[in-house]
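Long-time lurker, finally posting.

We've been working with Patatin-like phospholipase family protein (Algoriphagus namhaensis) and I want a structural starting point before designing mutants. I don't trust myself to interpret raw outputs, so I'm hoping someone here can both generate the structure tokens and explain anything notable. Sequence follows.
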Amino acid sequence: MKSNLKIGIALSGGGVRGISHLGVLKALNEAGIFPNRVSGSSAGAIAGAMYCAGYKPEEILRIIVDTNYFKFLRPAISWKGLLKMDQMEKLFGLYLKENDFAKLKIPLTVAATDIQKGKPVYFSEGEIIKAVMASSCIPGMFEPIFHDEKYLVDGGVLNNLPVEPLDGVCDYIIGVNCNHLPEETNITNMKNLIERTVIMSMNYNVYSRESKCDFFVEAHGLGKYGVLDIRKAPQLFKAGYDRMIQYMEENPKMQELLVAESKSEVL
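Top reply, 14 upvotes:
Generated this for you. Predicted structure of Patatin-like phospholipase family protein:
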């Protein structure tokens, strides 16, 4: 007799810190827990898209480390942003060859922000790559992405932990935040001040949704890593993995997900 229990996981944005999500997914999978619905903003959308396409967490890490991300960006001759993301389509196209949400092995929802209407928007059907690009389009750094008749920017602006697409659909929701800030007693320069303020705003956005999660996981101190510091990828992966292992040991209720997954069907 099969159970109808369904497990959803929401992955926050956070730039390169999102690599820690891959460690979380690896730890869950090793424990026998396989989410059957995923939602994500920004870096969480990228990690989620690759995972839902069938790549293992370690494979995604290798792809990220081996890919020269910056060669796919070019200057924007515009007041809207410093860089254009249009060449990123080629990069995503190498790994998301079937550019259709319906072709994914696990259902995925991607959050972005409609900059004109000032509202979050969610994509779960149609073209994957444009939706993921829009979700990770950091305002000011990149020109907005025009998709689905909307000008879109980073999903984390208004919803950095998109649990809403999972709420009422899944029996269990795991929320994962990759931006935990360590306590700081000495802000030494304006750059640090601005970065910390932005992360605080993102985290307020996330923590307001924590109550919607049955399990909420965040590796401590990841906010200290730079948003584009790809050199820290192995440390970030390990931080997510170690924290998820620890969290499962501290929360025996997660054993219920083992039972659920062993019997459940993918949506």
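Before you design anything, note these points.
The first helix runs from residue 19 to 30.
The CA atoms of residues 187 and 193 lie 6 Å apart.
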